[in-house]
Every structure is written in structure tokens, then in C-alpha cells.
Amino acid sequence: MKERKIEIMEVCPRDGWQNLPDVIPLEKKKQYIDHMLASGLKYMQICSFVNPKVIPQMADAQEVTRYFLEKYPDRCFNALIPNLRGAQTAVDCGLREVSFVVSASESHNMANVKRTIAQSLAALDEICEKLPQLDVTLSIATSFGCPFEGAVPPEKVLEMVRHGVDIGITKVELADTIGVGDPMQVYELFRAVKERYPQLQLLAHMHDTRNNGVANSFAAALAGADVIHGALGGLGGCPFAPGASGNTATEDLVFLMEKSGFRTGIDFPKLLEAAKEMRAEVPGNYSGHQIMIQSVPTGA
């Protein structure tokens, strides 16, 4: 395969930490994020702007965001938002990019953001109209399956993508929120979107519930995804998706991508050390495999 650049977006500070039973102190968050960024990561979903009563881990999201925007002006930071209020908070903090989440299944969207899909898409329209300076990614949760409804028809996802394109969205994320997708399913849906809307930048967000996270992420990359999400150590899980375990581990993704001819621009040993540090200090649901390896021989 011809060598190709693939971007890795680190989502641990948002998706990895949001479900932890204990809130990580602010100074520790800064330490862990600093060590993640030291590996060369350029893209990071640093928080979500949501009600801290629902997700206590995000109570300091504004402070974290402002701190890292100032410290790393050369990096691309992103926040997950569910509504206009969250989008406005992102703007007030100085963010230029956000991801707006809406589920492809009605049941999960109602559990996640307390809205119907139609109501969420109307909110997306409002955000794009009122805050045109924001670069908004349409993040479609449960693109490959729902914990309440089961299989999600690809046509439903494609229709939501079409809505995004019609209002000027240029980035779309397909998310396997509960980790039920398989590599062929992922490949076919990403190819369908890529062929229908070649102008879009495509992002892949895979969970590792059934140990398919890396394989599904790789399938997405082969199908034309431009950005792959990973969470350090494979930490995380959706609080509104029963049975969903951790994310796909960033270090596992980087190891496979680099071995398979993709260039990530990430220093793997530094990334692995950051993962080991966090695993040693933060109890949680980790799914990473490379994190268990004590050393990786040069050239392995």
C-alpha cells in the first residue's frame, strides 16, 4: 500500500474521562494532557461543554480549554457540544472547532441529549446559522448499531450526512458508540459516504467493546477516513450506552497504522509512556493492549 498520512485525534480528555467515578484534579489533567501532546499529537478533543451535574468531570472544561489554547497555539483543539449553549461556550473560550453530536437512533439520541433526531438537527441548523465562525463536525453516534434499537440502517446515516452537507457541513464523524460494528460494515459505510460526498473530511470514532476497535478503525482508514479517534489506554465508554466498554486505544492505533504504511507523525514510545503513567494513576476501564508491553524493540 502506498504510504498515506492519517491524522489521529486524541479524545481521552473528553470520552476517556467523562465516565470515571472520580473527578481528576485540574492540575493532574494538565499533566496528563501535556504528556499526551508531547508525543506529537496535533488534534485533541479536549472536553465537552455539557451540564456538569450530568457529567461532573467536565465542570472545569472552560478552564482546561483556555489553558491549553494559550499554551499550544499550534495544536488543533475541539470540544463536543450537544446544543447552541455549548457552542457559544466554545466560542467564548476561543475554540474554532466543535463536534455536534446527534445519534442515528431515536432512542439513543433521547437518552443522550433528551431530544428527537429532528430536534437535534434543527439545533445544528441554528448553530451553523448563528455561529458561522465555528468549524462544526457533524458527529453521528450509533452509526453502526444502537443499544436500544439494534441495527441502524445505513440509509438513515446517509440521510443525516446529506442534511449536514445541505447546510454547509464539511466534516462528518461516524461513531460506533457501543462497539458493535465489524470491519466490512465500517468499510462499506465509509466508502458509501466517501463516494457520495468526496468533498467531506471523514472522521472515525470506534469503541472496543468486542475487541474490534483497531480493526474497524483500520477499515475506516482504508475506506478513506481522514482522521481516526483514539483514547489513551483505551479508557472510556459512553455513559448513555449500556454495555459499551472502552474506546480504541490510541497507542494500539498508532502502532498498527505505522506498521501498515500510514504516517501518523506521533512518537510511539512517548505516547506509550503517557498511557502507562495514566493507567498507573487513574483507575478506569482500559482496553489497550500495547500499554501492557514493557518495551518495543527498535524497528518492531
List the uncertain runs.
Answer: 294-300
Order of helices and strands: EEHHEHEHEHHEHEHEHEHEH
Structural class: alpha/beta
What is the CA-based Rg, rounded? Answer: 18 Å
Query: Average pLDDT value?
Result: 93
Number of strands: 10
Instruction: Give the helix level as a range of percent.
Output: 40-55%
State the distance separating the first and last CA atoms: 19 Å
Tell me the fraction of residues in β-strands, as a range. Answer: 15-25%
Main pleated sheet? 8 strands, parallel, barrel
Shape: globular
Total of helices? 11
Trace the largest sheet across and list its strands.
2-3-4-5-6-7-8-9
Describe the model.
The chain is of the alpha/beta class. Helices cover 40% and strands 17% of the residues. The chain has eleven helices and ten strands. The chain has an eight-stranded parallel β-barrel with strand order 2-3-4-5-6-7-8-9, surrounded by eight helices. Strands 1-10 form a two-stranded parallel sheet. Strand 6, helix 7 and strand 7 (171-176) form a beta-alpha-beta unit. Helix 8 (183-196) runs parallel beside helix 9 (213-222) and helix 10 (250-259) runs antiparallel to helix 11. It is globular and about 40 Å long. The relative contact order is 0.15.
